[in-house]
Amino acid sequence: MIRALRRRHRVIWTVLFPILAVLLAAAILLRPEPPLVEALPEAREYASDHVEAGAQDETEPSRNEDP
């Protein structure tokens, strides 16, 4: 490597390394907190029964079908 380039390379890394180290530490410290709840709670049984009871009757025409 050319001597002038070697010196420039060493100076650049001498300045760049501490900046990158500080940025890495800041990124690690500023990570978002983990969620308080691991997963959403399960739906209750009566919720699915209520939806089925409110479904359209087969004798009624569907709004999605063509007339």
What does the model show?
The protein contains two helices and no strands. It is elongated. The chain has helices at 3-29, 45-53. 0% of the residues are buried.
Short characterization:
The chain is mainly α and 67 residues long. Helices cover 54% and strands 0% of the residues. The chain has two helices and no strands.
Which terms summarize this structure?
0% strand; single chain; 2 helices; 67 residues
Helices, strands, pairings?
Blueprint: H1 3-29, H2 45-53
Helix and strand element order: HH
* Low-pLDDT ranges: none
The SS-based structural class is mainly alpha
Number of strands: 0
Strand content: under 5%
The total count of helices amounts to 2
Separation of termini? 81 Å
Give a short account of the largest sheet.
Answer: none
Cα gyration radius (Å): 32 Å
Portion of residues within helices: 40-55%
Shape: elongated
Mean pLDDT, all residues: 78
